[in-house]
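Good morning,

Attaching, inline, the backbone tokens for the sequence recovery test we're adding to the shared suite. The designed sequence is right after.
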């Protein structure tokens, strides 16, 4: 049952990977495939080319394809179309900004995979704007489908008693093994920038601002000079954002702009910016910006390392604890209040399997003993800024069979997935009985997870 919910949910994760690849093959694939409708769900159709093109992409991305893969792909499409059909009936919608953000996220993923925006354009033989236009409706349907699914299972939860019953119902050979997991704390130190360096960057950005005011293109200036890699290649455009998604300083400037005026230079935790308004829509704003960061001197870098070296010595001599030192001295706001405890973004908890650590963390932690400190270690944050950190191994578990005492959160997730699966299966069974569904004869012998798809 747990496997089934993961399979149904995989519609959306695989679709996220496939959607920006499949249509590249459509023209060439259809030269070989005599296209036809293989299934109808309500008012939606599923084509043979939909199945074939996705299988081509699965193979290209290293997924194994079995004799039943076409059937599995079709069943995924059937579930997705059933959800989409009901979403249309229920008038479930997503905003344009949500579609644009998801489209941008996926395009950025593929740009990273293929190497550059230009390479992606060459791959499709289309401009980036044409690619966005091609996939906008597909992604909108996927987001609406996901919203429909959350309408069904979003409020599912399990009580502690349900978790215990679920665990006790598992056969011995189905209780998973948990690999070694670690908890780590960190203390982060960014090199300090001199007043002279801050002044230099402000002056440079003011010069660029004046060139834009004098008639040069903000977009061109962003491509040439912005140090925000995510937006620079798009001419500095960020897409529609609510105030909550921006830093307070950035939001205050962005939401105060009128027309296409260029803001004065201002500072955030990421560096110095200038911003130009593109459009404002309700509580969302779309701007383009140019980011420039001060550069740390070698002396400033050495001072950051020396500070952490001295702090590590103080901790090792038991003058203070790592947790207290992190609360007092770390430059990482996200972990300061927890005493430097690092959160696993995949699980939301504080435990990491070793293969979930970043390469830098893994190299430092793999040979450490509990209570040891490693570093200073040079690293970069998501904005590309260099910083240094100390790592502390808080705890490490040995590989073991999952149990309620040590792995309650993991087992609760399994139990919740199982319950979601049952709720979703019940919903699918009910809607399937009241929805027009036709499947081509060629697929009627498929080993679907439910024979109800073809028993009508």
């Amino acid at each position: 049952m747990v496997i089934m919910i993961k399979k149904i949910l995989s519609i959306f994760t695989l679709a996220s990977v496939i959607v920006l690849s499949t249509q590249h093959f459509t023209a060439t694939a259809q030269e070989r495939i005599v296209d036809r409708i293989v299934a109808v769900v309500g008012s939606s159709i599923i084509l043979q080319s939909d199945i074939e093109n996705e299988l081509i992409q699965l193979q290209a991305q290293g997924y194994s394809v079995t004799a039943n893969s076409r059937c599995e792909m079709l069943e995924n499409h059937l579930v997705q179309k059933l959800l989409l059909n009901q979403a249309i009936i229920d008038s479930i919608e997503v905003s344009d900004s949500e579609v644009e953000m998801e489209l941008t996220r996926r395009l950025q993923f593929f740009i990273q995979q293929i190497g550059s925006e230009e390479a992606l354009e060459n791959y499709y033989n289309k401009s980036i704007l044409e690619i966005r236009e091609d996939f906008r409706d597909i992604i909108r349907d996927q987001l609406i489908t996901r919203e429909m699914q959350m309408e069904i299972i979003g409020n599912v939860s399990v009580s502690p008693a349900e978790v215990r019953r679920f665990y006790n119902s598992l056969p011995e050979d189905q209780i998973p093994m948990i690999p070694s997991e670690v908890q780590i704390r960190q203390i982060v130190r960014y090199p300090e920038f001199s007043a002279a360096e801050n002044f230099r960057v402000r002056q440079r950005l003011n010069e660029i601002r004046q060139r834009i005011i004098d008639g040069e293109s903000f977009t061109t200036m962003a491509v040439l000079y912005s140090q925000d890699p995510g937006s620079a290649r798009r001419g500095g455009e960020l897409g529609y954002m609510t105030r909550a998604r921006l830093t307070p300083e950035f939001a205050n400037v962005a939401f105060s702009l009128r027309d296409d005026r260029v803001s004065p230079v201002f500072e955030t935790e990421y560096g110095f910016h200038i911003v130009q308004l593109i459009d404002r829509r309700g509580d969302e704003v779309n701007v383009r910006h140019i980011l420039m960061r001060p550069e740390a001197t070698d002396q400033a870098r050495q001072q950051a390392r020396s500070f952490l070296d001295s702090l590590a010595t103080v901790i090792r001599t038991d003058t203070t604890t790592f947790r207290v030192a992190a609360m007092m001295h770390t430059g990482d706001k996200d972990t300061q209040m927890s005493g430097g405890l690092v959160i696993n973004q995949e699980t939301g908890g504080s435990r990491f399997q070793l293969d979930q650590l970043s390469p830098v963390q893994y190299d430092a932690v793999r040979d450490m003993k509990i209570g040891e400190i490693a570093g200073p270690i040079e690293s970069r944050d998501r904005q590309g800024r260099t910083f240094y950190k100390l790592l502390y191994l808080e705890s490490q578990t040995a590989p073991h069979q999952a149990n309620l005492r040590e792995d309650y959160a993991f087992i609760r997730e399994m139990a919740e997935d199982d319950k979601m699966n049952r709720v979703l299966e019940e919903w699918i069974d009910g809607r399937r009985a009241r929805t027009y569904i036709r499947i081509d004869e060629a697929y009627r012998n498929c080993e679907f997870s439910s024979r109800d798809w073809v028993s009508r």
